[in-house]
Amino acid sequence: MITASQKRKENIAEYLLYMWQIEDIIRANGLDIDKIKHNIIDKYPDLSDSQRREMTEWYESLIDMMRREGVEKSGHLQLNKNTIIQLVDLHQALLKDPQFQDYSAEFYRALPYIVELRSKAGENKSGEIETCFNALYGMLMLRLQGKEITPQTADAIKQISRFIALLAHNFKLDEADQLFKNKS
Questions:
Q1: Three-state SS letters, 5-45
Q2: CA 56 distance to own-chain centroid
Q3: pLDDT digits (tens, 9 = 90+) for 27-62
């Protein structure tokens, strides 16, 4: 909750990946708040009683949303889907605007990797931005599991990471009304 809020302000990409991880943590704990208290919240010994209560309420609200939205087993909460939608909207605006040629160039450098990943997705095809996040999240999971990463995968992730970092930077500027300030 505290981490999510901080990440949301600082880096939208890190926030989204963090929230996807929280969804998986909730699933791994069977959407059971008692297990989450034991396995996660209790691991923070320096929390005050009010912080512990806030964290518990945050997890409870996410569990409730996951149940109401039918994403107990897989999928993403609408609030996370909305973040993707915001990023897609910004991405499209940046591609259309000639003042963001560096952004477009970075996207087109990542595009072959995105196309390749989408071709491997079978029937579960996502848009370009979500495909990038799926790749980054998949890499995070591979690293957490200590699995080997091929040089080709590492190259793809490196390029996708650069592209998403630029999108996240532009998102932060846009939220501060500093991105399109030179436009008349």
A1: HHHHHHCHHHHHHHHHHHHHHHHHCCCCHHHHHHHCHHHCC
A2: 22
A3: 999 999 999 999 999 998 899 999 999 999 999 999
